[in-house]
């Protein structure tokens, strides 16, 4: 009997130790969650009101697939300015026009420094883009170039003839195709025309031909840029995972933006050679950017010229959506 009690005692001892380990783990986990919750409350003491959210996930589950609808619903409870935590990233959301105007217009310099999305964080132009750099002399120079040249109605109107020429070429192409009794691919036609209008505004030349298939590669690059910019990227909400690139978004983004950047570099170098050879000016956006760069080298270098040209081509992202819809017709 003594032997049987001894054996039963030795069998119960490991089970007792296992139970204690499980309880210790649960207790430590509970303390960790309480600590995280308390830390979150401490951080939010000077922030606008907002939903507390879950540990680690924050308010991601509350936002769901329709952020605009979720923000409108939360604003009714927490007010026009609220704090939302997406993963481990804290955000302040302005949900009414007056509050957005206060942030984006009256205090735009204070809020100019934004978190760079992981999709472009490793790219060369991430540190030279006006959307991501903090307020300073470089930021002001970039803003001046944007308002003076890229979004200036008078400047764009002066290049209207170049864009009109592209439309005439498109009409001639459609006429020739119809004469031969061939089908017109509306998506490719619209994309090529819009792409050439943009390239004429920037470089005074066409970068694609209506008869060529070369536009497909550029079309794919623009489509990829649009997709990676709009795609949910878990790294943006959990920065500790940034070295993993779990979804491969950074890799796709680097290839797509690299394609756009290579095209811009080609035209910049060619224009610099033309200037050294004293060839006539084109009077396009590239000439304007280079003129400004020569006068303000410290604040606006050739890298900034490249970034603005890539940005101009990124505007073509909207054309991909049009291309998709036109293919569905």
Automatic annotation (TrEMBL):
InterPro entries hit by this protein: Cyt_P450, Cyt_P450_E_grp-I, Cyt_P450_sf
Keyword Iron-sulfur on entry: no
SUPFAM superfamilies: Cytochrome P450
A molecular function GO annotation: iron ion binding
Keyword Oxidoreductase: yes
A Pfam family matched in the record: p450
TM helices/strands, residue ranges: 16-36
UniProt keyword terms in alphabetical order: Iron, Membrane, Metal-binding, Oxidoreductase, Transmembrane, Transmembrane helix
PANTHER family per the UniProt record, alphabetical: CYTOCHROME P450, FAMILY 76, SUBFAMILY C, POLYPEPTIDE 5-RELATED, GERANIOL 8-HYDROXYLASE
Family according to the record: Belongs to the cytochrome P450 family.
Protein's name according to its UniProt entry: Cytochrome P450
Species name: Escallonia herrerae
């Amino acid at each position: 009997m003594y032997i049987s009690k001894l054996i039963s005692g030795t069998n119960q001892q490991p089970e007792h130790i296992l139970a204690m380990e499980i309880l210790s783990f649960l207790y430590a986990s509970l303390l960790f969650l309480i600590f995280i919750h308390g830390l979150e409350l401490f951080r939010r003491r000077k922030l606008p009101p907002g939903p507390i959210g879950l540990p680690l996930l924050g308010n991601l589950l509350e936002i769901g697939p329709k952020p605009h609808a979720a923000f409108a619903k939360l604003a009714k409870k927490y007010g026009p300015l609220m704090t939302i935590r997406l993963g481990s990233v804290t955000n302040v959301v302005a949900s009414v026009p007056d509050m957005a105007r206060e942030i984006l217009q009256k205090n735009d310099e204070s809020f100019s420094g934004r978190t760079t999305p992981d999709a472009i964080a490793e790219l060369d132009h991430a540190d030279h883009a006006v959307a991501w750099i903090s307020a300073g002399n470089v930021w002001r120079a970039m803003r001046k170039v944007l308002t003076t040249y890229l979004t200036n109605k008078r400047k764009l109107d002066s290049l209207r003839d170049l864009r009109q020429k592209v439309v005439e070429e498109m009409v001639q192409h459609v006429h020739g195709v119809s004469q031969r009794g061939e089908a017109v691919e509306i998506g490719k036609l619209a994309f090529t025309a819009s792409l050439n209008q943009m390239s004429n505004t920037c470089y005074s030349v066409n970068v694609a031909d209506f008869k060529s298939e070369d536009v497909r590669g550029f079309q794919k690059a623009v489509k990829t840029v649009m997709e990676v910019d709009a795609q949910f990227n878990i790294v943006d909400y959990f920065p500790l995972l940034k070295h993993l690139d779990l979804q491969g978004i950074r890799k796709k983004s680097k290839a797509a933006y690299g394609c756009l950047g290579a095209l811009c570099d080609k035209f910049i170098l060619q224009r610099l050679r033309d200037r050294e050879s004293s060839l006539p000016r084109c009077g396009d956006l590239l000439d304007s950017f280079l003129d400004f760069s020569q006068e303000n080298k410290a604040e606006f270098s050739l890298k900034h010229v490249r970034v603005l040209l890539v940005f101009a081509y990124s505007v073509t992202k909207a054309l991909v959506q049009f291309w998709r819809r036109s293919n569905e017709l």
